[in-house]
Design goal:
By secondary structure, this protein is an alpha/beta fold. The protein is built from 15 helices and 24 strands.
Length: 498
């Protein structure tokens, strides 16, 4: 007979957090939600640290470049879905990397001999309103002038008018020398009331632009997750089939971290994929793996070289893996088991492997529970699918606004690569459904509220960081009756609209 684990497989809803001593210093503004995304050795720091413990799911209905930009601006990270062509995924990654970059390479350039018609065509093609005028029309040519929308009026100008006749010439521009710091550049912009500042080298060749709007954006998003070049950080999902073609293209596009997208990460297919990435790039390309639900699966991926490991099989709101195959584990139990293995591995090896809880989040407080149970960060799909920034349509259904949300294992997504069992046959049954989720508005507004709840709970426990939450929080199992008791009961709730 099979090995039987008699321990009950539990979910987040079966636990509560006990309050601790709330000190006067325990206020939401003192809570630190920074958390490691990738592995690091004791005494060192990870190559990527999230400012908030949230990443978005590797799903067509969740993580495109729009959601990736919005989440990175708040301090989290998106893994752009891989169930699309390599070219389309690369384009999405590049859109995120060029969205904001402190020092921005000019991506719209013309020569003085071009015309207004060329300017309008370039603006339509690139969506950039600032055009650098250089001697050779390249991003690194000698700067001769600048064109913005204030330099021409389409209704009054001939489309054949030469750029040199309406551009703002170099003699009228304020520029800065290459080597200036970003703070100095922003000070110059503010001092001279500029919208942009061209940066040129000692030979007068254009190097970068610094834009006022980027400074304003950073002030509005103080937790923004950016790389050492001030570009937003973005991840990408890959599969265990076409990684030899997909990974080099994503690396070339500037992706910061990869993650294998699979319902079952405890496989030789994942080991081969990780080995390829680590060997080809001498360990310099970061890659997460999963999903697993126990100690054995975690250690297998760690020894294969994974930089983080995702935990959870069958717990997603659109996932029907457990119904279809009878495979999985309650998310709380899986997370507790893997977290224990992670901590023991750290003690033995001196290497800390972050774990990501993927699935099982129904209420906001489940997020805090997951972190307390050992998760370093959480991957969420349904949560982010509800927002304006997700890629799906907003519809009016039954008098309520909803957004479409479908699983990667559904017929709609047809992402059979994530259920790789070898061979060439497609999956013969679905492991995900096609659905709607209630529309919730803007990502920032909802995420601020969720973060506020998490910080409030931590304050009630006398805790100010995720590490403290994992080491000091006290959790208790709850009965079905106490779950009922925890909500409104024995009253007639008034209609909130009155």
């Amino acid at each position: 007979m099979a090995n039987i684990i008699n321990e009950i497989s539990r979910t987040f809803s079966e636990y509560l957090i006990l309050p601790g001593l709330t000190r006067k210093s325990n206020t939401p503004d003192t809570v630190n939600l920074k958390t490691p995304l990738v592995k690091y050795k004791k005494g060192e720091v990870p190559k990527i640290t999230l400012n908030i413990p949230f990443v978005s799911a590797i799903m067509q209905s969740v993580s495109d470049n729009g959601l990736a930009i919005a989440l990175a601006k708040e301090g989290g990270l998106s893994f752009i879905f891989g169930s699309q062509s390599i070219e389309d995924q690369v384009k999405m990654v590049m859109e995120v990397k060029k969205y904001k970059a402190g020092f921005v390479e000019s991506r719209a350039n013309l020569t003085p001999e071009h015309t207004l018609e060329d300017v309008l065509a370039l603006k339509k093609e690139t969506s950039f309103s600032t055009v650098g005028v250089t001697d050779d029309g390249t991003s690194c040519g000698k700067l001769l002038g600048l064109i913005t929308s204030r330099d021409y009026r389409v209704s009054k100008e001939s489309l054949s008018k030469k750029v040199k006749d309406f551009m703002t010439p170099l003699s009228n521009l304020i520029t800065a020398k290459d080597g200036i710091t970003l703070n100095e550049a922003n000070d110059t912009i503010w001092e001279h009331k500029l919208n942009n500042l061209p940066i040129v080298d000692k030979n007068g060749k254009l190097k970068y632009f610094v834009f006022r709007k980027d400074y304003d954006s950073h002030k509005d998003h103080p937790n923004e997750l950016s790389d050492d070049k001030k570009r937003l950080v973005v991840g990408a999902g890959i599969n265990t089939r076409d990684y030899e073609e997909r990974v080099p293209a994503l690396v070339e596009a500037g992706v910061d971290v990869l993650c294998i997208d699979s319902s079952d990460g405890f496989s030789e297919w994942q080991k081969d994929t990780i080995s390829y990435v680590k060997e080809k790039y001498d360990g310099n390309v970061l890659i997460g793996a999963g999903n697993v639900v126990d100690r054995e699966g975690f250690l297998y991926l760690v020894k294969a070289g994974a930089d983080f490991v995702k935990v959870g099989v069958g717990g997603g709101s659109i996932c029907i893996t457990r119904e279809q195959k009878g495979i999985g584990r309650g998310q709380a139990t899986a997370l507790i088991d893997v977290a224990k293995a992670r901590d023991e591995y750290f003690i033995e090896s001196g290497e800390y492997i972050p774990i990501c809880s993927d699935g099982g989040i129904v209420q906001d407080y489940h997020i805090t529970l997951a972190l307390a149970m050992g998760a370093d960060f959480l991957m969420m799909g349904r949560y982010f699918a509800r927002f304006d920034e997700s890629p799906t349509r907003k519809l009016l259904v039954g008098g309520n606004y909803v957004k479409e949300y479908w699983g990667e294992g559904s017929n709609r997504a047809r992402n059979w690569q994530r259920y790789d069992m070898g061979g060439n046959d497609n999956l013969k049954f679905e492991e995900g459904v096609d659905s709607y989720v209630p529309y919730a508005g803007k990502l920032k507004d909802n995420l601020d509220q969720t973060i506020g709840k998490t910080k409030s709970t931590m304050c009630s426990c006398g805790i100010s960081s995720i590490k403290e939450l994992q080491s000091d929080a006290k959790l208790t199992l709850v009965s079905s009756t106490s779950i009922i008791e925890g909500g409104a009961h024995d009253v007639i709730v008034k209609d909130g609209k009155n």
